[in-house]
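Pipeline run #58 for the internal structure catalog. This entry was flagged by the ingest filter as a single-chain record with no existing model, so it goes straight to prediction. Upstream metadata was stripped on purpose; only the residue string is passed forward. Reviewer on rotation: M.T. Logging verbosity set to normal.
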Amino acid sequence: MVRLLAAFMVAACVSSQCYSSPVYYDGNALKQVLDQWARRDAGGAYSQLDAGIALGYVIGVADTISGTSYCVPPKAPANQLLAVVYKYLQEHPAEWSMSGDQVVAAALSQAFPCPKKK
């Protein structure tokens, strides 16, 4: 249900005027919620809301643009995608000012490139 809602929200944004609007969710905001997800994953104290936002955002972007610049394996669990994006943000702090969807796309493109067509 969370995946469906997140995908709907991203799809609605893509089909509306989101491209002409300011970016409200950038790499900095994404890193903050992913920090909470990482704490949850490690068993520490965390914000359930922020961890849920991280899950919904990353999966929503991944579902919406999968197959365009990256090809996530069909059985890849959601936590794997979040871990990939979290690691990418840790290794690329210069990209924290990018829009959140660009960060997710860059991280997943690096981790899951599509096979080259023959």
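catalog note: The radius of gyration is 14 Å.
catalog note: Residues 2-18+26-111 form a domain with the 10k-s Protein, Hypothetical Protein A; Chain A fold (CATH 1.10.890.40).
status: ready for reviewer M.T.
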